[in-house]
Amino acid sequence: MSDDNNKDLLRFAAEYADQNVELYELLGVDALTSKEDIHRAWRKRSLKHHPDKAGDDFDASRWELFERARDVLSDPSARAAYDQASKAKLLRRQEREAMDKERKKFADDLEAREGAAVRLRQEKEQRDREVLQKERERLAGEQRMRTEEQRRQAEAAQEMEDLAEARRRLKEKRDEKARKRQAKESMKASMGVGKPAGPDNGAVNVPGDYIANLGDVNKKYWELVCDKLRAVQAVRNLQKQQVTAEELQEAEEGVQEARRRIHEAEAKYQREAAAF
């Protein structure tokens, strides 16, 4: 075999090894197959690719590959170069695969550690949320207790205020009855006449239809009494509401004004009765 032909076989051996072309598998042999068996395997495997057999389906490149596989594996130096290059290529691939496995293992370990860190952080955040929720519930419970206590205290204060108001009203009624009795006795003693017709309202027993001409006011005595009752009720209503001190003071001044008019009417009636 010429040197040029040997160089071509060595070049083909290197190219096929680099391109991962499996020459042994192509011919159906292995690394221990002899040269004679390689030729027999070539004739058997390449027969269907022969130009006379393939006809219109003849593939020149495929036929050429079978011939070069035969020549490379039949030549000891070319075969050794192909085996050596294939083994080196296989070794590099195995090294890359091993490195890829190491990288994958490192990536998996890193991912596992990151996942564990994420789970720990999530668990901590969950515990923190639970602690925060419990604290909120505790504070809400304390706030409800304070609100309930304030409500009870407000109700107790209101009951005390209502009781004081009831006692004040009862005292006013008793005082009013005492003034009326005193007025009756005073009228009887000063006038020496029987009881005039009309309701008992003030310190002096004045007939209800008595017209009290008090300058800017010209009303019957019973109308003045009604004005006072309405003014007193207005004050009581305001005391139960959330009103300003000015509004309450204005209403109380209305009560005082109504009482002043009744007093003036009673005094006027008493003067007129004494004149007869």
Automatic annotation (TrEMBL):
<feature type="region of interest" description="Disordered">
    <location>
        <begin position="121"/>
        <end position="200"/>
    </location>
</feature>
<feature type="coiled-coil region">
    <location>
        <begin position="231"/>
        <end position="275"/>
    </location>
</feature>
<protein>
    <submittedName>
        <fullName>Pre-mRNA-splicing factor cwf23</fullName>
    </submittedName>
</protein>
<keyword id="KW-0963">Cytoplasm</keyword>
<dbReference type="InterPro" id="IPR036869">
    <property type="entry name" value="J_dom_sf"/>
</dbReference>
<dbReference type="GO" id="GO:0005681">
    <property type="term" value="C:spliceosomal complex"/>
</dbReference>
<keyword id="KW-0539">Nucleus</keyword>
<dbReference type="GO" id="GO:0000390">
    <property type="term" value="P:spliceosomal complex disassembly"/>
</dbReference>
<feature type="domain" description="J">
    <location>
        <begin position="22"/>
        <end position="86"/>
    </location>
</feature>
<feature type="compositionally biased region" description="Basic and acidic residues">
    <location>
        <begin position="121"/>
        <end position="154"/>
    </location>
</feature>
<dbReference type="Pfam" id="PF00226">
    <property type="entry name" value="DnaJ"/>
</dbReference>
<feature type="compositionally biased region" description="Basic and acidic residues">
    <location>
        <begin position="164"/>
        <end position="187"/>
    </location>
</feature>
<dbReference type="InterPro" id="IPR001623">
    <property type="entry name" value="DnaJ_domain"/>
</dbReference>
<dbReference type="InterPro" id="IPR052094">
    <property type="entry name" value="Pre-mRNA-splicing_ERAD"/>
</dbReference>
<dbReference type="GO" id="GO:0005737">
    <property type="term" value="C:cytoplasm"/>
</dbReference>
<keyword id="KW-0143">Chaperone</keyword>
<keyword id="KW-0175">Coiled coil</keyword>
